[in-house]
Amino acid sequence: MTSKNGLSIIKPVPKTRIGLYSAGLKAYWSQFEGLRDRLRQYGAFIEEKLSQYGEVFNYGLVDDEAEGRKAGEWLNANNVDIVFCHSATYFTSASALPVHQACKAHVVILNLQPTAAMNYARTTTGEWLAHCGACPVPEFCNALGRAGISFDVVNGLLGLEKTPEISVADEVTAHRPEAVKVWEKASRFARAAGVKRMLRGARFGFLGGNYSGMLDMYSDFTVLQTQTGMHVELLEMCDLNRSLQKITDAEVSEKMDAIGKFFRIEGDSPADPIAKKPDPEQLRWSARVAAAQERMAREYDLDALAYYYHGSDDNEYERLQAGFIVGHSLLTAAGVPCAGEGDMKTALAMKICDSLGVGGSFSEIVAVDYNIGSIILGHDGPFHIMISDGKPVLRGMGVYHGKRGSGVSVEANVAAGDVTLLGAAQTSEGKLRFIVSEGKAVKEEILKIGNTQTHVIFDTDPDTYMDKWFPCEPTHHMAMSVGRNAELFLTTAKLLGIECLIV
Q1: Phi-psi bin for 154: left (phi > 0), alpha (psi -120 to 50), beta?
Q2: d(Cα 491, Cα 481) in Å, to the nearest integer?
Q3: Sequence-separated (6 or more) residues with CB below 8 Å from residue 238
Q4: Alpha helices, DSSP H only, in 334-367?
Q5: CA–CA distances in Å: residue 488 to residues 222, 296, 353, 386, 502
Q6: Residue from 449, 339, 345, 337 nearest 387 by CA
Q7: Lowest mean pLDDT among 72-81, 218-227, 409-418, 433-442
Q8: What is the pLDDT of residues 276-327, one digit of tens each?
Q9: DSSP character for 166?
Q10: CB neighbours of 141 closer than 8 A, spacing ≥ 6?
Q11: Calpha distance 375→297 (Å, rounded)
């Protein structure tokens, strides 16, 4: 599998398994000719819409208690991640409740009226019953609540592009905002359920250790596994070094080609004497290390990686970590997000963003530009090149500030437009917390010091924004995604059972 930029994807995102059924009342089928088939056709339309976001398992009609039990077991057998209940007409809550007593996947009730307004002069009882999906929803919500089953409801129009022959009303509603919002909301649930599936069993590597003294970086790996389902694989520098020893010249040449394709080699920084044009030896070493990083990621079947190594006296491993940034940027773009300074929580945030197709670049607050009204966000570590404003620049760094060693670093900014930050922290209660904020990346001058930087303007001035962000007790890193994704991240957090704050 390859990305839109032609980079080979190492860890494709698994498809969401979406459960679906339509609820109705068996007594109606013999009383109103054509109603059953009509509702099935609505269900098929919903199946087609949801299939954009995963593999749909459509049970069909549930119209009595026995059918509900069968549907629940069938959905279980298909290991679905989420269940959409289409309230097709009136149904008894006793018919549908057994579905969810058997299948514990999160339930989303779809109350989707086929028409904006019935044709009152020509509507029969059978016609009305095809449009009364809202009628049983309060009853069903009450039953689910009393059963201790969590649920959500999506209300609006079905969004057909053609009126069925049986209908006496105009059912073309695809253009209506009440239909557009329905499928935006339904897609959020389907995509969020995909994140939950992806994390269940995802393998996160922890290479080396944390940056000593950064208390916010320290993570409880048991909490991460119990709250998300992810597995943490503890790795040593000798594991990477073992991979390095196996790298061939052909693999190095392949990585050199990738570096030439995805990065721009710049000259010396006009401002910073420690940021120079990378010399050929530095580039080739970065390419060799990048090949080793990919080999290790494949060997351990990694979905993401948090890393940091504090070297001593220019030892072999310090030289190895000096080549990390280019390879980890390539891995991030290939579906294996990499977070520096041992920040496993931000690796989680980056992986969530990446699996949703919205990027997820490693960031922290760099500085504030009060003239522009922006907060500059970036880091000296890996960059998600798939959301870059043009080709990222590579610069040779004489010193990695605050760290040991020197090597090649990435200088870049995220493309202008809407962005959303996703931060992940651990609270004093030991649980995970997501912190989300929407803003707008703007194209402004950045520092030429071999670091990633993006000017982001929020809805309030920088000081007011920080007044709100800091009390949420975040880590000092976050993942930067493209697009307005707050509702999507909020839905994801809900399905994962993780607290989520919107700033």
Answers
A1: beta
A2: 16
A3: none
A4: 344-355
A5: 26, 32, 10, 20, 12
A6: 337
A7: 409-418
A8: 677 788 889 899 999 999 999 999 999 999 999 887 777 888 888 888 888 9
A9: T
A10: 109, 151, 153
A11: 34
Q: What are phi and psi of 373, to 5 degrees?
A: 85, 30
Nearest Cα neighbor of 334 from 12, 3, 9 is 9
Closest CA to 117 of 48, 198, 176, 54: 176
**pTM of the model as a whole:** 0.91
- Of 245, 182, 192, nearest to 16 (Cα)? 192
Token readout for 273 is 């004497």
Per-residue model confidence as pLDDT tens digits over 182-200: 999 999 999 999 999 999 9
Structure tokens at 279: 């010399």
Distance (Å, whole) CA 24 – CA 36: 9
DSSP structural state of residue 80: -
**Which structural domains are found in the chain, ordered by start?**
16-198 (3.40.50.10940), 201-502 (3.20.14)
**E strand residue ranges, 301-459:** 304-308, 338-339, 359-369, 374-379, 393-397, 407-411, 417-426, 432-442, 452-457
Token readout for 478 is: 């976050």
Q: What is the DSSP string of 427-454?
A: -TTS-EEEEEEEEEEE------SS-EEE
